Give the backbone structure.
Amino acid sequence: MVDPQRRRRTQAERSAETRGRLVGAAIEALIECGYSGTTTLAVCGRAGVSHGSLLHHYGTRDRLLRAVLEEVYARLRTRVVQGLEALPEGDARIDALVDLMWSVFSAPEFKAVVELWLAAANEPELGLEVGEAATLFDAEIEPTASRLFPEVAAELPDFGAHVSLLFQTMQGMGLVHATLGRAKPVGGEHGDTLALLKRWLRRSF
């Protein structure tokens, strides 16, 4: 018997759920099968929706993949912000910061980002979608860091360059981890580089 008190979902809510399923399925496919294995048919099969539904909501595969990149960036951004807000005070703060950043950029979701970066290098239309999403993500990095570290941002003249260098280094290490180092224990990978980053930030901050 149907519960008479149960509210019927709106069309907008059903559409949002379908888009979420498609994006989630595409992320899983990129992580598990790579870009070449993330076909529209494979995504639809994982999501349990029709190919027509995918075309209705996204129009093209490239637009779906842009939505994927935006969702993964949102997840990574949330993890960074929540982690930064929970960092300990005192001498352990810098080490915890570097460990947090590495946990984010060595996470499985970042492989989806790497797959799209590499594919975009050879596909101009996808490159436009990926480039715009990446630019929006990058533009939020320094303002977020300034908000969370206001005293350092005010006192360090080249604070933005420090933040950019940290993120670019982490993204490069994440790329290597996603493509070449996934079989290695994360804790033992890039150990010397992580230690160097911690020493550099302690001197700078």
